[in-house]
Design brief:
- With 167 residues, the chain is of the alpha+beta class.
- The protein has 4 helices and 9 strands; from the N terminus they run βαβαβββββαββα.
- 34% of the residues lie in helices and 34% in strands.
- The strands form 2 sheets. It has a 7-stranded antiparallel sheet.
- The N and C termini lie far apart (40 Å).
C-alpha cells in the first residue's frame, strides 16, 4: 500500500494536516477513528473548512472526545443545522483501542494529538497519535538533523549537475 507524505493512503483526500504536532510531539503510536458530525459540517469539510491547530483529544468515561477542532460554518446551509465551530466532537473507536489509549495517556507527558483529517471511502476519519511532548533541546536537534539532510541532498545535486555540464 503506497502512502503519501502525510500518512494517508493513495486515493484518500486529506482535509487538514497538523504538521506542527509532528514537530512538537514524538509520536509513538497511531490510530484512526471515525468522528460524529452533522451534515453541514461534512459539507464544510468538503470545501476544506477545517483546522487542527489547537485540537487535542481526551479520554473520558470510556469515550474519546476531540476538542478545539475548528470546522467553519457552512455558509449555504440551514441556519438551524449548525453547531459551534469549536464544539466537542465524539470519536468512534473500538473498546479495546479506547482502553489502549487510556493506558497510554495515563503515562507521564503523553497526549492524544490529532494528526490529520481525511476523507476515506466517503467518510471522515481522524488520524490520532499518542505522543510525548518534545523538549526544546529535542526540537533544536531535530531541526539540525533536517538541515544537515537537506544540505547533503543539495550537495549531491550540485555535484551531479556539475558533472553533466562538464560532459
Amino acid at each position: 500500500m503506497v502512502r503519501e507524505k502525510s500518512g494517508a493512503r493513495r486515493g484518500d483526500h486529506v482535509i487538514a494536516d497538523n504538521r506542527a504536532a509532528r514537530f512538537d510531539y514524538e509520536i509513538s503510536a497511531r490510530y484512526e477513528a471515525g468522528i460524529v458530525l452533522i451534515g453541514a459540517e461534512v459539507r464544510s469539510l468538503r470545501e476544506g473548512g477545517a483546522s487542527l491547530t489547537d485540537a487535542y483529544a481526551t479520554v473520558e468515561r470510556g469515550e474519546v472526545w476531540l476538542r478545539q477542532l475548528h470546522i467553519a460554518a457552512y455558509a449555504r446551509g440551514c441556519p438551524f443545522d449548525r453547531r459551534a465551530e469549536r464544539a466537542t466532537r465524539k470519536l468512534l473507536l473500538h473498546a479495546r483501542e479506547i482502553a489502549e489509549l487510556e493506558r497510554a495517556v495515563s503515562r507521564e507527558r503523553y497526549a492524544l494529538v490529532p494528526l490529520a483529517l481525511v476523507f476515506r471511502g466517503g467518510r471522515v476519519k481522524v488520524q490520532l497519535g499518542v505522543g510525548r511532548g518534545r523538549r526544546e533541546h529535542d526540537k533544536r536537534a531535530l531541526i539540525a538533523e533536517r538541515t544537515a539532510a537537506r544540505e547533503a541532498v543539495a550537495e549531491v545535486r550540485g555535484r551531479r549537475d556539475r558533472r553533466r555540464r562538464s560532459a
